[in-house]
Specification:
With 382 residues, this protein is mainly beta. The protein has four helices and 18 strands.
């Protein structure tokens, strides 16, 4: 805990003395949100509700205020070297399991002008077609899709990523990683959720009825891997296929939060018009996660798909997203999100969003785990 706090404080502490260097850049934001939620207690507080916040029960309503701040640093002392780190501090709903601040990413890049890039550290896989803004944020919606909500909670490789780009139209990538052995625990425990909460390094989060630590000390000394291939028309359209297998050895980690789940998935991502007024983007994923018991194993299969359409007109952006999801043999549902964003200036963004999700969870005391949220957001960006 002390090392994690020290690492996070160092990110913020080095900002002032280094800011005068031309090779140093900072990006960050402070966000305040007022949320009207109609749903049972949130997964984040140990419940089965699908949102990051919740009310007392499925029929209840509540107003919840949350706030968070993220700060990222990019230091480029030469054209072939980059040092990046970013962290988060947050105020969440009372009862949320987790840390109020922590380290999200920390990595170094070695790169040539175009052909090669080697990344070492903890980082996001370059897959998301909605979380494309700095610090893995979305310009389209406040609430992320089910897929990227889960990526934010449980998928963060710690290792090495090599990307080769022989032309503007084609690239290959491969990742070798450790420390993500429990990936799949939260998804299997409560199914797909919707929000924007990002798990920090070594943080313990809720995974009913227990807890899990998605990224931290390696548990089984196995090396997970991920491979991807991308074809693109620069600034027009792209399609990417990604495969991931954490290669966790099930039954070796003891009790939660350090219980390995062997998780693997295939992901297809695509977008068109990302830098145009009209953007179309989507992702489809399918996989499975397996946990071990003294007398056997349990495997949960999952899949999800979303499609979003966004239109920007000067300072205003309208976005609509539809998605469906499934986990296990019986649990399935769908969700819809409509959002309006206004960038009043380079530093100020306001937004209003409505999200609605269905889906039952058979093992929950109240299986009606869906609900809705209305979010009003004010974000100051720097």
């Amino acid at each position: 805990m002390r090392m994690k706090r020290l690492a996070t404080l160092l990110i913020f502490a080095i900002a002032t003395p280094l800011s005068a260097q031309s090779s140093l850049q900072f990006h960050g934001f402070v966000t305040a949100r007022e949320i009207f939620v109609k749903a049972q207690p949130s997964w984040a507080t140990g419940g089965f509700g699908r949102f990051d916040v919740g009310a007392d029960n499925s029929n209840d309503k509540a107003w919840v205020f949350v706030a968070n701040a993220q700060l990222g640093m990019d230091w480029t002392p030469s054209t072939w070297f980059l040092l990046h780190a970013d962290g988060v501090a947050r105020k969440e709903q009372t009862g949320t399991v987790g840390d109020q601040f922590g380290l999200i990413q920390a990595f170094i890049d070695f790169r040539t002008e175009q052909l090669l890039r080697l990344r070492l550290g903890q980082f996001w896989l370059p897959t998301s077609r909605e979380n494309i803004d700095p610090l893995w944020t979305s310009p389209y919606t406040i609430t992320y899709s089910a897929w990227n909500s889960w990526m934010g909670q449980e998928v963060r490789p710690i290792g090495a990523d090599l990307q080769i780009t022989p032309s503007f139209y084609f690239s290959l990538g491969g990742t070798a990683f450790i420390g993500n052995d429990t990936m799949g625990t939260a998804l299997a425990a409560r199914g797909w959720t919707f929000g924007n909460r990002l798990t920090a390094f070594n943080e313990v989060i809720a995974a009913v009825p227990a807890k899990t630590r998605p990224f931290g000390t390696d548990l089984d000394h196995n090396i997970g891997d991920s491979e991807r291939i991308r074809v693109q028309l620069p600034e027009r359209a792209m399609i990417q296929y990604t495969r991931l297998d954490n290669r966790a050895t099930i039954g070796t980690g003891g009790a939660p939060p350090n219980d390995p789940w062997h998780t693997k998935f295939d992901l297809v991502s695509a977008s068109a018009g990302e830098n145009s007024p009209t953007t179309l983007a989507g992702e489809w994923a399918k996989g499975e996660t397996t946990v071990g018991f003294p007398k056997g194993t349990f495997t949960l299969k999952f899949d999800t798909v979303y499609l979003l359409l966004s239109q920007k007109n000067k300072t205003d952006r309208w976005t609509a997203r539809a998605e469906q999801f499934k986990y296990g043999d019986k649990a399935k549902g769908h969700a819809y999100t409509v959002a309006w964003m206004r960038e009043s200036s380079k530093t100020l963004r306001t937004g209003v969003e409505y999200s609605y999700a269905t889906g039952d969870q058979p093992q929950a005391l109240d299986p009606r785990t869906g609900g809705s949220t209305i979010i009003v957001e004010l974000r100051y960006r720097f």
